[in-house]
Give the backbone structure.
Amino acid sequence: MKLKRHAILLSIAALGFGAGPLQAADGEEIYRSAMPPCSSCHDTGAAGAPKVGDAESWGDRLDKDTAVLVQSVKDGLGVMPAYEGKNTDEELTASVQWMVEQTRNGE
């Protein structure tokens, strides 16, 4: 009985102290590693994709809510394939946020 109680207490302690906060997905990493990689079109503007760092090519997309942009990624748009089920919502959001941030900063 003591051993079982000790194991439960250790489990609770590990959850509370050892795990730390969950890390958000690295937007640039997802941008480069999604399949197909977002970078394959958004680095160059291929197939009419808005080029990362080029605010003019993004037009009014920069004014849209992140959730709207993520939904376009999930559903696919134009020749961009649908990413629904290929990456988590968190990963897609991180990638979109990274692209928008890079574009707003002109990088």
About this structure: DSSP finds six helices and no strands in the chain.
